[in-house]
Write a structure and sequence with these properties.
By secondary structure, the protein is an all-alpha fold. The protein has helices at residues 2-19, 23-50, 55-80, 87-117. Helix 1 packs antiparallel against helix 2 (23-50), helix 2 runs antiparallel to helix 3 and helix 3 (55-80) packs antiparallel against helix 4 (87-117). The longest helix is centred in the last third of the chain and has 31 residues, at 87-117. The chain is elongated. The chain starts with a helix and ends in a 6-residue tail after the last helix.
Length: 123
């Protein structure tokens, strides 16, 4: 379970480092996040192949793939920049944060739905 949260935490660390001007640390965090996101994407795709009927599993696999692509784009653009951080690197990092936020919302939605169905007991 923790392996699924680790890339998101690293992306959040990279965003925080970028906001503080520590662009080298941000690149390092993103480079570390790539293999973890790749493994999570492959595992999610394997889960999709096992349960093709479940739309949530398919969406999670698709979002992992998108997050991986955005991570790779941000790393590539950052590694080739000489001065500062290009806008594409920042944009792809923010988009990756958005993908992880959507993933979290999709993962939490069934629990929120159950919570909404609870009714207080009658006295």
């Amino acid at each position: 379970m923790g392996r699924r949260f680790f890339p998101g935490v690293l992306v959040a660390v990279a965003a925080l480092a970028d906001s503080r001007g520590r662009h080298g640390l941000a690149l390092d965090a993103l480079l570390v996040a790539v293999p973890f996101a790749a493994v999570a994407a492959i595992a999610a795709f394997g889960g999709y192949l096992d349960r093709r009927d479940d739309a949530v599993v398919a969406l999670q696999a698709l979002l992992w793939g998108l997050a991986l692509v955005l991570l790779i784009v941000s790393c590539e653009v950052r590694s080739n920049s000489i001065h500062g951080v290009p806008r594409l690197a920042i944009s792809s990092l923010v988009a990756c944060l958005g993908v992880f936020a959507i993933k979290a919302g999709v993962a939490v939605a069934p629990y929120v739905r159950r919570l909404a169905e609870l009714r207080p007991a009658k006295p």
